[in-house]
Amino acid sequence: MNDSDQARPAAPDEEEFKREVEHKEARKIKARREREQNRRVWFGLGMFGLVGWSVAIPTLIGIALGIWLDMTFPSGFSWTLMLMFIGVILGCINAWHWVKKESQRD
After folding, report:
1. CB atoms within 10 A of CB 52
2. pTM
3. What angle do CA 36, 41, 43 make, to 5 degrees?
4. Among 44, 91, 35, which residue's Cα sits nearest to residue 63?
């Protein structure tokens, strides 16, 4: 390749091809960025659901078991309230565990 080849201006077809490639590259970069943002949104919604169910399931199990104990073994205190409270505590610990685990993964 000599100096005259380097100094020669690009042909119109080459310029058009270059612009087209640059345009496609910009579109791909934008699509990747949007895809990553969508993943974050879905991850957040999934985590929200996971935390909700992690608290709700132990609470409901505690309530059901408490109702059964209150009907089967009547006493001066409410098994339902006590087991509901224990279920909420266990659910919060469970949710904290999942959030901590997922945040360490990133």
Report:
1. 12
2. 0.59
3. 90
4. 91
Find, among 61, 94, 53, 93, the residue nearest to 80 by Cα.
61
With beta carbons less than 8 A apart as the criterion, state whether 88 and 54 touch.
no
Give per-residue pLDDT as tens, 9-68. 556 688 888 888 888 888 888 878 877 777 777 777 777 888 889 999 999 999 999 999
- Find the domain containing 78 and state its range: 3-105
Q: How far apart are CA 43 and CA 102, in angstroms?
A: 10
Q: How many domains does the chain have?
A: 1
Q: How far apart are CA 14 and CA 12, in angstroms?
A: 5
Asked whether 99 and 47 are in contact (CB, 8 A), the reply is yes
Rg of the chain on CA atoms, in Å: 31
